[in-house]
Design brief:
With about 140 residues, the protein is an alpha+beta fold. The protein has two helices and eight strands. The chain has one domain.
Length: about 140
Amino acid sequence: MPIDYNKYPDNWKTEIRPRILERADNKCEFCGVENYKVIFRCYDAFDETKKELYQDSDGNLYDAADSKLIDNNSFNWDLLPLGKDTAIKVILTVAHLDHDLSHNEDKNLKALCQRCHLRYDAKHKAQKRKEKNQYKLEI
């Protein structure tokens, strides 16, 4: 979904976002995946828990929870995709931790990959949908 930059301050793209990405060393502040890295989200076919992993184009295999290197030669692993996409390009976003776009202090902002940002926002969005549907029922 495209971002409506009209809801953000004028210096969002030129000052705030670059500052947050720099503070995060251009990595997701939750899982540690690097900005613009092309990865394959997957799991080990022999792992019944289907623990989420990701593999980069060099064959490095990482734990998706914390980006810790598992193997630097994973081409011999039997990896299965987690979703329909075989490869994705990580683009860091900046999340408002309190979900209020007007609160742009650094302590309220985190650089997050798409996966972590969606997961972080999931409960908040579900609550908003519930409130919206409740309102419709009352009308």
